[in-house]
Design goal:
A: mainly beta, B: mainly beta, six-stranded mixed beta sheet, 62% strand
Chain lengths: 114, 115
């Protein structure tokens, strides 16, 4: 039982390049989330998927797109990377959306955009 | 908009001491509050989840309390150990923070336990 896994662990991009961050969970959870963590800012929600087939914007969605590929997988795409997107990206999942359920986090992807 | 503040930003104490970490939030209409631990270069580990209807939760040497009306939570760590050294994050789920589905995080308390 690996929990929440993320690939890659590290990535360096040049401005304007695109890439997709992958996330998968093996806990049969319905809801999945993408956050970014920046020094001095704390973690902020980018997008979430309350259930398979649905996605919604969080606090900082600009510059990102997401795909809920199936119940297990939730990907985050940067179409044209900018230096402001240099951050650590965390994927999380919970059994259901809503207040009663803990969120479980992956190990993160450290992205640098030059 | 929900805002979460954690005080102190950093704390260093000798091994064996009991300690309290503080978390405050601006909008008391929360669904739940969750405490996490983050080790350097790692993801977040959930420690305790307190529903809005609860006053406290306990897990081993950890006890978290919630006072929704005053917008405060505390995490009490008993008999601290060097392995407790980490950054502790407080997060709330609230209507003004985007709904029950997303968490609003504080910036964390960096805790060092001296052997």
């Amino acid at each position: 039982n690996a929990g929440v896994t993320q690939t890659p662990k590290f990535q360096v991009l040049k401005t304007g390049q695109s890439m997709t961050l992958q996330c998968a969970q093996d806990m049969n959870h319905n809801s999945m989330y993408w956050y970014r963590q920046d020094p001095g800012m704390g973690l902020r929600l980018i997008y979430y998927s309350a259930s398979e087939g649905t996605t919604d914007k969080g606090e900082v969605p600009n510059g990102y797109n997401v795909s809920r590929l199936n119940k297990r997988e939730f990907s985050l795409r940067l179409e044209s990377a900018a230096p402001s997107q240099t951050s650590v990206y965390f994927c999380a999942s919970s059994e259901q959306a809503g207040s009663s359920y803990e969120q479980y986090f992956g190990p993160g992807t450290r992205l640098t955009v030059t | 908009k929900q805002e979460v503040t954690q005080i102190p930003a950093a704390l260093s104490v000798p091994e064996g001491e009991n300690l309290v970490l503080n978390c405050s939030f601006t909008d008391s209409a929360i669904y739940n509050l969750q405490w996490f631990r983050q080790d350097p270069g790692k993801g977040l580990t959930s420690l305790l989840l307190i529903q809005s209807s609860q006053r406290e939760q306990t897990s081993g040497r950890l006890n978290a309390s919630l006072d929704k009306s005053s917008g405060r939570s505390t995490l009490y760590i008993a008999a601290s150990q060097p392995g407790d050294s980490a950054t502790y994050l407080c997060a709330v789920s609230s209507y003004s923070g985007g709904g029950a589905d997303g968490l609003t995080f504080g910036k964390g308390t960096h805790l060092i336990i001296q052997p």
